[in-house]
Design a protein that fits this description.
Layout lengths: L1 H4 E10 L2 E11 L7 E8 L4 H14 L12 H18 L5 H19 L2 H11 L11 E8 L8 H11 L5 E4 L5 E6 H27 L8 H12 L2 H12 L3 H13 L9
Antiparallel strand pairs: 1-2, 2-3, 3-4, 4-6, 5-6
Helix pairs in contact: 2-7, 4-7, 4-8, 6-7, 6-8, 7-8
């Protein structure tokens, strides 16, 4: 069932003489892909039940796990069907770089909209003012996408994919053990970043396997092919724009830069 897809365990560590306790949530084989696992670590607290429920729902919404047949809503079913059709495109005999780029950009744009809206900012201001309680989705967490196979080295295409997914969400990006990548920020954002990165890597793997089966495919370089897929799906120039936006400290300069990017179509249409 979706609820049991996330495995849980408790962990503790000493920091500046104090014992800090965490709850680790682990999702193995997201999107039925055995190469990776998603981990989310949050501090032990009184919102664990809500956090567990949120992670379960997000895994279903993203299509990373199958929804229990008795609880499949029409919206859940639509998500699953869209992902299945997209997977079939990558397993098919021909998918262009443009198709991959448009598909991945859709995920990036929709995830960004879910986390950076006017309503979200208004809610954040009320929470900072102390007039509204923080919800489970706002809990500070560390998410990571890890290789399931041990003794893995850091790979450029994998790190690039994770960083480019993280940037528009405004979460901190870093490296994890065993060649993995990690994200720090609100629970909903870091879990979304890890699940989206897993999906991008899953599609890249499917496309590489398709290319290997084609005539002369045995000569295909895996690192080069995967980097090409990431560059096509998550364009580096878009990543650099997001990086610039979040690096500007002056609010007026940031607003001016965003307005300029908006006029150039960065947030809308095919380039948004």
């Amino acid at each position: 069932s979706p609820a049991s897809a996330w495995q849980e365990r408790s962990a503790a560590r000493q920091f500046r003489g104090r014992c800090e306790k965490f709850r680790m949530f682990i999702l193995r084989h997201p999107f039925k892909c055995a190469q990776w696992e998603v981990r989310v670590r949050i501090a032990e607290g009184d919102k664990l039940a809500e956090c567990r429920e949120l992670l379960t729902q997000m895994a279903v919404d993203f299509g990373a796990v199958s929804a229990a047949s008795a609880h499949v809503t029409q919206e859940d079913q639509s998500v699953i069907q869209r992902l299945q059709r997209l997977e079939e495109r990558f397993r098919g005999s021909g998918v262009t770089e443009g198709e991959a780029r448009n598909a991945m950009r859709l995920f990036e744009r929709e995830l960004s909209k879910a986390n950076w809206t006017a309503g979200k900012f208004e809610k954040l201001k009320r929470q900072l003012a102390g007039v509204e309680e923080w919800s489970a989705s706002d809990a500070i967490a560390e998410g990571s996408l890890m290789w399931a196979e041990p003794c893995k080295r850091r790979q450029a295409w994998f790190s690039d994919a994770c960083e480019r997914v993280a940037m528009p969400l405004g979460v901190e990006f870093g490296y994890a053990q065993n060649g993995g990548c990690c994200f720090v920020g609100p629970l909903s954002a870091v879990a979304g970043a890890a699940l989206t990165s897993a999906l991008v890597c899953h599609f890249a793997t499917l496309d590489y396997e398709r290319a290997r089966k084609a005539r002369g495919g045995y000569r295909t370089s895996a690192p080069q092919f995967m980097q090409g897929f990431v560059d096509g799906a998550l364009a580096q120039d878009r990543h650099l724009v997001w990086e610039r936006i979040f690096a500007i400290e002056d609010e007026t300069d940031a607003a001016r830069y965003c307005e300029e990017a908006f006029r150039q179509g960065f947030f809308n249409g095919a380039e948004g």
